[in-house]
Every structure is written in C-alpha cells, then in structure tokens.
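Tokens in:
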C-alpha cells in the first residue's frame, strides 16, 4: 500500500463549525479529517502533519518555503503528498511549489474545499478522497485537485467564489478527470535525473493591473525601493496606452534604465500575449519587456519570484523566464 503524507496548512477544509459557540469556525486537526472519512485507510497508508493553520490570504513566501522543505525532507519516505490549503491563494502556492521542485518522480497534490468538512453538503470529502487517490498514482508533477478534475498547478487559477468547481486551467486541458476511474490524459514525463529542490523566492516584485485612466507617473516611485521586476497585467494580447499622460512608455523606459525585469501578462484568461501583434507591443518588446505568453498571472509572478531568488545573472533570469520550466506555458 502506498504511503501518503498529508500536510495541513489551513483554509476552509481545515475548519469545523463549533455549534455550541454560535456557529464559530475553528481549526480541526488533520487526524480528525480522517475520522470523517474512515475509508481513506483503504486507499493508502496515511500520515498527517500540521505545518500551520492559516487563512490563505495570509500566506507568504516564507510559508511556501515551509511547505517545500517539509516535502523535500520527507521525499524518500512517502510515495506521494497532499497539501491542504485555503482556496484564495492556492494557485499561487501550488505554482510556486511547482517551480521549486525539478525532476519530480512523485505527485504533490494541492486541494481544499469551499465548505468545511463538518458540513453535510461539503465538497471537502470528495476533494480529499480524489487528491489522496491521485497521490498514489505514477504522476510526476505538482497539481491541483478540485471538483473531480486534476489541473497542472502552474496552469491553475481560481475562477469562482461560491461554486464547487472553483478552479480551472484556462489555456491547458485538465491532466486528469475523475469519474468511476481516474483518467490521466497527460502529465510531465518522468525524469531519470535526481530530484532537486530550490526553496528560494524573491519578494522584490510588483504587479500592476492596467486600467483606463491610470497615470503611470503615480507609480514611478514604486521602483525606487529595490524592485527587481514588474508584472504588468495588460489589455488583450499585451496592449497598453502610448499617448499623453497615460502613456506607459516612460515607465517602461525607467524600468529599462534601472535593469528592472518587466513581464507583460494579460487580463484576458484565455490565449497568449503577443508583443508582435500591435505597435504598443512592439514598443514594449524593443524596451526589453518579456511576454508572459499564455501563463496565468499566478505562474507569471511566482516564476519570476523563483528565478530572482535562485539566480544572480540577469541573462540567466531572462533566459529561463522565456523557457517553459515546469510546463507552465506553451512554447510552440
């Protein structure tokens, strides 16, 4: 029987309703989750560890490192890993973890729930069963398990606050779908090289979402305090204002002058940024702006945080950002 480690970090799936306290939500230990689903013992030999209990809105890069190191330090003792996490920033954490591990030979599955396990109509039981089952299979990457689908972690994003099918993968088909059986459609190929782990992330990154009427000069001061990269969430295929006081060009020139990496992502969920398509994109390209292609914002951000943390050389950072490292973007 496969050995699976469940790592508890908090979130709704970690909560139960204390009815004697007017419905107050409180943390529940991971071992108690198993009590709700005794049949889990038929799937795997399960061990549970509490790393911390946090609302996922409070998660930081330091918490990502705790999760990564917990997996790294027990990697040879278990066949797979399940991380319980709040849904609000789950896609960020899962994306970051995917970049930290290279040459994975075991599954790392993130899951959570929209409703606590103790509620009758909760989605927690189904998600947890599916995640553990997925963690027992030959699967070599970090993934998100939610509502009977398995998504590549760094292709995932949260789309719904109130629906059970809260996550999706806009530009990449699910890795697997779960019905009577688990149908794995595709995944990263196994590597013959040893697993490597790099739990390093830089927080010297800013995300700016463009909007009509935005005056870029208001943001120039942001780049005077050690900022090393700016992720721009632009319009359509990477468009932005280029005329008058709303022009983004002075900001891009300032970034180029200060050797700040600028990545152009898109506010559109589907398809890819193309800096060749329109004149504004070509201006950005000539100023050294990097296209996020079809990466999610979560992947575009965490990939840069990882590369800035791991490499010193601007050439290495730019070169690796343009490559698909863990299947996070389409390169053809």
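Residues out:
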């Amino acid at each position: 029987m496969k050995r699976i480690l469940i790592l508890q970090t908090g979130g709704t799936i970690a909560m139960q309703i204390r009815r004697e306290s007017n419905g107050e939500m409180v943390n529940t230990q991971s071992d108690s989750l198993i009590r709700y689903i005794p049949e889990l013992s038929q799937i795997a030999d399960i061990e549970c560890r509490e790393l911390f209990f946090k609302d996922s809105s409070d998660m930081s890069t330091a918490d990502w490192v705790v999760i990564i190191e917990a997996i790294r330090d027990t990697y040879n003792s278990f066949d797979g890993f399940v991380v319980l996490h709040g849904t609000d920033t789950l896609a960020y954490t899962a994306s970051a973890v995917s970049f930290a591990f290279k040459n994975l030979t075991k599954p790392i599955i993130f899951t959570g729930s929209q409703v606590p396990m103790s509620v009758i109509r909760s989605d927690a039981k189904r998600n947890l069963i599916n995640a553990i089952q997925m963690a027992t299979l030959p699967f070599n990457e970090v993934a998100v398990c939610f509502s009977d689908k398995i998504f590549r972690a760094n292709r995932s994003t949260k789309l719904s606050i109130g629906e059970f099918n809260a996550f999706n993968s806009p530009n990449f088909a699910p890795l697997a779908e779960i019905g009577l059986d688990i149908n794995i459609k595709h995944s990263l190929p196994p590597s013959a090289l040893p697993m490597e782990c790099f739990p390093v992330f830089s927080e010297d990154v800013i995300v700016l979402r463009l909007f009509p009427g935005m005056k870029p000069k208001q943001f120039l001061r942001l780049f005077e305090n050690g900022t090393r990269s700016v992720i721009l969430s632009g319009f359509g295929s990477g468009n932005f204002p280029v005329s008058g006081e709303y022009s983004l060009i002075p900001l891009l020139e300032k970034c180029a002058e200060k050797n700040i990496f600028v990545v152009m992502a898109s506010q559109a969920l589907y398809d890819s940024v193309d800096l060749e398509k329109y004149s504004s994109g070509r201006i950005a390209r000539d100023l050294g702006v990097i296209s996020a292609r079809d990466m999610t914002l979560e992947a575009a951000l965490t990939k840069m945080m990882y590369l800035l943390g791991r490499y010193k050389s601007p050439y290495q950072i730019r070169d690796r950002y343009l490559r698909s490292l863990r299947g996070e973007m389409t390169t053809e």
